[in-house]
Amino acid sequence: MTDILSDTIIGGDASNATTWNGGTVQSGVGLFVSAGGIASNVSAGSGGYIDVYNSGSAVSTYLFGGDSKDNIAATLNVSSGGQASFTSAVDGANILVSAGGTTSGDVAGTGGQETVWGSAVDLTVDAGHAYLSNGGNGTNWTAGNGGWIGIYNGGTLNGLTVSGTNTYADISGGQVSNATATDGGIVQIENGVTVSVLSAVSGGAIQVSAGGIAQSAVIETKGVMDVHGGGSSLSATLEADDATLNLSGGKASQTILSAGAVNVYTGGDLTDTTVQSGIINLSGGSATVVSATNGSGGINVFDGGHLTSASLQSGGYVHISAGGTATSDIVQSGGTEYVDDGGTSISAQILTSNANIIVSAGGLASDAEIISGYGTVYDSGTMNGGSIQSGIIRVSGGLVSGMVAENGGGFDVSGGSVSALNINTGGFINLYDNGAAANITGSGSNLTNGNGGVSVFGGTLSNASFQDGSTLTVSKGAVSDVTLATNGHGFITSATVESATISGGTMVLSAGAITSNSVLTGNGTVPNGQSQAFEAISAGASSYNATFNNAAAEYVSKGGVSISATINDGSYAYAYAGGTLSDLTINNTASAIVSAGGQLTGATVNNGGYVSIESGGTLSGTLSLQSGGQASIYSNAGGTIVMDGEKNTGLVISGLSYGGIVNTVISGFDGAASGDSDGIVLDGVKDGDVVGIAYDSGDANRVWINLKNGHAIGLEIDKASSLGNSLVVGTDGNLIYEVCFLSGSMIRTSAGDVAVENLTIGHDVVTFDWKSNKYVTRPVVWVGKAQATVRTDLQDDEAGYPVRILKDAIAEGVPYKDMLITAEHCLFFEGKFVPARMLVNGVSIFYDKSITSYDYYHVETEQHSVITADGMLTESYLDTGNRASFRQEGTVVRLGGKKRTWADHAAAPLCVERSFVEPLFRAVELRKNSVAGRCVRTEDIETTLDPDLHLITDTGATLRSMRHKVRWSRP
Predict the structure, then answer these.
(1) Where exactly are the structural domains of the chain?
(2) Average pLDDT value for the chain
(3) Which of 480, 489, 594, 654 is the most buried (most CB within 10 A)?
(4) What does DSSP assign to residue 74?
(5) CATH code for 741-881+911-930?
(6) What is the pLDDT of residues 621-632, one digit of tens each?
(7) Contact by Cβ (8 Å): 462, 480
(8) Residues 624, 586: Cα–Cα separation, whole Å
(9) Residue 656 exposed, middle or buried by CB count within 10 Å (0-12, 13-18, 19+)
């Protein structure tokens, strides 16, 4: 067929040809194909024009070039009703598909172009261009080799493949579905466009700009989808390891990662994502509701990235690095959350037994809730707040604080520290070497349940409190400032506890345990015989400087030691067999008990305090018994008791009913007067049991008390023989008129007259042997001192006033100065002793009522003797049962001694017979008015010396006394 050199019409009416095959439409010439016409294999060069319309058709048209002068391109115009197929356009040629026109199988080759307002099927853009404009419709378009396709508003394309480097499909409008970018090809989705069912594969890329939407994209091998600010991806799937979705300010939702990576940059937002495998990288963007549920699937949260409500399981993980944040993640079976340097996890939930959260150097996890599973904190990581209900948080470095552990959840601490933790029922802390715990609160019933609590196997624990059944168990390490409150319990072995406070709780110390400065406070009661706050010390354990208040207790069993404890207000310390109490201080209402086999190595018992060393118990040190304190011991207790203060009568010695030697040394006796001195009570020894008292000639500290049963009691009292302690058993409390000298009486000795208060044992006094009329020197064996207080409400001779015998009252120079003696003291006359009271005349010898309180003395020689006092013959002391009232720079030990009698032991007979005494009285009376300083009576008072006191009734009956309430004892 020849070329077409002029405008030619085929089809349309019967006069026109219906087919045209081959030839070239020359420049400026048009070929018009109308109804019924068919143009086949026709070419058009520059300026050539083919118009197919009104049911005309063109097949295998070839368009090339354009005029170099006027740049008129070869053109195929497919108008309404026209059809063209397999057209090729190159070198600037142009295919125009108008509304209503249809093409298929076209190729826009190099430099060629196809613009579609109508319909184009199976279009290939091979280094050329194609445009789908308003109203245009395309199917299965392919761009390659640098080709370019533009889709505009109103265009619709189903099936798009963009392949090759520098090959683009720019979708700025219309609707596109089933698009594929491959081998470097790019699909660009612009503002307002939604592209559905698209894919990127083999290096292909999908670009989503602001306002663009990529829906149901599949990103395969080396495929990439970039979603920029304002762009969106909906329901994308990544299916290859090297598939990539980048959110650079854009959004993606309902994404599935079967493999590959999603990178979320600043401003990017990822929601409702499932990571089956592959990874999400958050670098400044955010992700919400992400599920990593399989094998190697995970999420990396980098600087500025924020993850919310991730769900991890079956190998899924979150890795939070510096500047990244994850909030409210849920970690389940097989899932792991890693928090690295500078990363932050907030309110994570670890739900199952093999789920994990791991916090490393500089990482922070706050308010994590571990329902079941594990946590790990190491290398300066931090976990703060939250709880663990089952499982373990392993701390090998860093800090865990502000958490609650319960129901089988807890902490293994082998490095770093834990602080401000609450350990409830079933919760626990296991503390190992290099670990530290502080400010711990235990408040669960771990003791009852048999699990939980705080166990210290090493490291340090400080400022911890336990109550309501919670427990502290220490087998190694150092513990300080712990509090065991009501029903809190501590069990210590091979460890040190410093400054514990036990207020209603208990502490049990076993081998190797050492506590110091503990303070225990009870609740004031001791139910069932056991304090509600106590410290129990067993073999190999020691307690130092503990303080016990308000009915708290200390129990020391075999091999245990308590040192320097202070026991206060109703509290007590108890040493069982083999237990040792050392250097105790026992204060008011407090007590210490040492049972058989127990040992007390030193104590101070203050006013109101009490210590009991039971039979078989041992005192191996010094017990300082203060006035008002009490100590009860047995004869074999040992040690030393120092009785400090006056009126100290708190020592009781038991087990001496059948005699025995008390191996406890007693020292520190002192006192001021009778009833105002120290005392020792021999429990079970009665007044009638004692037959005599003697000092041991070979031991100056030994006192022997001989009993009626043939046995003897030996007491070791410091300097007993030199002090001349008075030994009695009890008193009846009534006034006893004592036979003795008052202070200032001058006793004649071999060295001259010496004041009675200055006499000591060993002084040689001059005695008068009236039978041989010789003076004999005898040593003083005892000097006793007492104090008397006058009972002014009684008669003069019963009140206890001292008798003053004025100088020269008996004879010239006898006495040579005023003499003061007690009323029953006897003076020696003509071989007989006469009580001073019987010579009272009210003038030269009288009761001195100016003295109502005075010290008085006994001077005892080995035998009752006549001695000289103030120049007058008188008697030495004869013990007729009143020794108990006296002391001499020692103590009045309430023991007792065998009484002597005037009939058997007196140096001269006692005489009170009127026939002998009255002449003496009258002789003295005759001298009374010549005695200087005599007492002048201002009024006459009717008196009688008749001892037969009785009453006469008005009927004449005589009533005599049946008993005397106040009695005097003869000297």
Answers:
(1) 654-734+889-899, 741-881+911-930
(2) 86
(3) 594
(4) P
(5) 2.170.16.10
(6) 999 999 899 999
(7) yes
(8) 10
(9) buried
